[in-house]
Amino acid sequence: MSKTLFDKVWDSHVVRSLEDGPDVLFIDRHLVHEVTSPVAFQGIKQRNATVLFPARTFATADHNTPTINQHLPVEDPLSANQLKALEENANSYGISHWGLGHEKNGIVHVVGPEYGITQPGATIVCGDSHTSTHGAFGAIAFGIGTSEVEMVLATQCIMQPKAKKMRINIKGELSFGVTPKDVALYIISRLTTSGATGYFVEYAGEVFEKMSMEGRMTVCNLSIEMGARGGMIAPDEKTFEYIKGREFTPKGAAWDKAMEYWKTLKTDDDAVFDKEFNFDAADIEPMITYGTNPGMGIGISKNIPNAADISGGASTYQKSLGYMDFHEGEEMIGKPVDYVFIGSCTNGRIEDFRAFASIVKGRKKADHVTAWLVPGSHKVESAIKEEGILQILEDAGFELREPGCSACLAMNDDKVPAGKYAVSTSNRNFEGRQGPGSRTLLASPYSAAAAAVTGKVTDPRDFLKNNN
Amino acid sequence: MAYDKFIVLKSSAVPMPIENVDTDQIIPARFLKATERKGFGDNLFRDWRYNPDNTPKKDFVLNNDTYSGKILVGGKNFGSGSSREHAAWAVYDYGFRCVISSFFADIFRNNCLNVGVLPVQVSAGFLDSIYTEIEKDPNTQIEVNLPEEKVTILSTGESEKFDINGYKKENMLNGFDDIDYLSSMKSEIEQFAATLPF
Ligand code: SF4
């Protein structure tokens, strides 16, 4: 029978299929961080259980770590406790631990691919919803709850019914200045935040074929924001090129054998999806959000829609605009910006910093803007320095912070104050996500850079043209 | 977390003929910050059970000595609202092992099955019979027989079959949660792992 990419990877990991029950799915790689794991480890202890395959589990600290002075003791006692618990748990169960200060430390979804933990055809879970990032390599990757973290630690399996299948095709060529982030925000604006609930998504078509691996990670990362369980893209030469030689990828004969298998990982021509969407690349422009969920996005040159033109939820629509202090019909361009955040597992990789630097180069940060530039990992941080990007940033009046999730969820000190506007390259613009009362505008690294130098919402294409 | 096996339960029941009891009522959101599963039984129906000054509300059924037992008989659409597992914990930790209703919210039903509370869905007519019998005699005994998937009002002999998914039934009979189930197939998992390319 013809199979989709998702079928192929899922079916090959089913240990047992329960009649009118879930599948028992084997998990190849389990990523663990400090916030969602302590209670799970406690459960393991209480059961007198053990971690079944410690070598398949990888721990890193990221969610509540500070992004300055990481060499000093962590001040917040709650954070310090969780970091300590992670270290102790990892040590006592023989799990590799890339804690604060470790050279491989970084955001869990950034370091996974960097070290080749993420591979095509693998099943990957983590107690964080943006685990979908790893789908960029043709893996099945999704976020889980704490009781499931315990389940995977104890048994390396999870009990889940198989999701329905959706394919999103985008044909044509992306316009000038349009990034993978814009593609993702466009898709979410079209499908809404619940449009893919119950589905696992495959992205296909020219746009994704031409996209870099980092761009594919950005797109898959945001799958969860339209309700999808996860998103994936079939592996190709670009994928193999990217992972080759990384620490945890197979070497020598094992590599050749893996390649044979990986090359079979694509959807059969006549395979059927439960739902398909087709979009045209030419319709996508740089995007920005104006409301309090990632589905409330528009082309940056457009005006905020009228409630009447929005399908459903008029009352929450007004509440959303009220929170942002925006009004129907207003222009987005020119709106004042107080904070700029570039980072997170959505846009905290080297290509994102290159994009940001290409705009701020030779310009100056707007005086009233506070900018947090947070690399996704130490590896990204090193690349920023080695490529001379740090110099460009510093010349423009920016400083680089140390890696972590930072203002993506504001669990550490990087909080946007109440009422202030932040253009952010992260993934959620929920009320209070970036700090109590904070107002978030999600956008690409280009748009974040443009806002950082002008201090207001600015079409990044103006600058990109000037650069040519 | 392991729970006691459920095979046949014979008990009096607590009537709560209210429709659409949601998870916010079962366990108010402010009790979700706990990092350990502790004290949830005390907070079951907290705001229905207690006044703001923590004195018990006399007219609420859980504060009425006339009714007791390990079975809670709720109205239609019991457990709607959020997916919080804490609601099922609270029901179990209070001491209920079974909730009977004519309709359950999906996620709540699943959560119950995971933590050791048996949700028994009966017809509206049968639910009414239970209420009627309890009204006549608060000590009316109800038998919930899991192997036979049958619930019986012992005083009248009236009974009805109920549905349960085979996997969940097996777990309840053994007092297993998903992790126990998976642990029981450990060697199968290890053999499977050995065949994988990763
Ligand atoms: S950067 Fe944000 S979304 Fe990504 S792992 Fe950290 S908190 Fe989660």
Automatic annotation (TrEMBL), chain A:
It is an enzyme of class 4 (lyase). Residues 7-455 form the Aconitase/3-isopropylmalate dehydratase large subunit alpha/beta/alpha domain. Pathway: Amino-acid biosynthesis; L-leucine biosynthesis; L-leucine from 3-methyl-2-oxobutanoate: step 2/4. Its cofactor is [4Fe-4S] cluster. It catalyses: (2R,3S)-3-isopropylmalate = (2S)-2-isopropylmalate. Keywords: 4Fe-4S, Amino-acid biosynthesis, Branched-chain amino acid biosynthesis, Iron, Iron-sulfur, Leucine biosynthesis, Lyase, Metal-binding. One of its GO terms (biological process) is L-leucine biosynthetic process. Binds 1 [4Fe-4S] cluster per subunit. Its EC number is 4.2.1.33. GO terms for molecular function: 3-isopropylmalate dehydratase activity; 4 iron, 4 sulfur cluster binding; metal ion binding. Coiled coil: none annotated. Pfam families: Aconitase (PF00330). [4Fe-4S] cluster binds at C345, C405, C408. The keyword Nucleus does not apply. Heterodimer of LeuC and LeuD. Belongs to the aconitase/IPM isomerase family. LeuC type 1 subfamily. Catalyzes the isomerization between 2-isopropylmalate and 3-isopropylmalate, via the formation of 2-isopropylmaleate. This is 3-isopropylmalate dehydratase large subunit. The lineage of its organism: Bacteria, Pseudomonadati, Bacteroidota, Saprospiria, Saprospirales.
TrEMBL record, chain B:
Heterodimer of LeuC and LeuD. One of its GO terms (molecular function) is 3-isopropylmalate dehydratase activity. One of its GO terms (cellular component) is 3-isopropylmalate dehydratase complex. CDD domains: IPMI_Swivel. It is an enzyme of class 4 (lyase). Keywords: Amino-acid biosynthesis, Branched-chain amino acid biosynthesis, Leucine biosynthesis, Lyase. It comes from the Bacteria. It comes from Portibacter lacus. Catalyzes the isomerization between 2-isopropylmalate and 3-isopropylmalate, via the formation of 2-isopropylmaleate. This is 3-isopropylmalate dehydratase small subunit. Pathway: Amino-acid biosynthesis; L-leucine biosynthesis; L-leucine from 3-methyl-2-oxobutanoate: step 2/4. Belongs to the LeuD family. LeuD type 1 subfamily. It catalyses: (2R,3S)-3-isopropylmalate = (2S)-2-isopropylmalate. InterPro entries: 3-IsopropMal_deHydase_ssu, Aconitase/3IPM_dehydase_swvl, AconitaseA/IPMdHydase_ssu_swvl, IPMI_Swivel, LeuD. NCBIfam families: leuD, PRK01641.1.
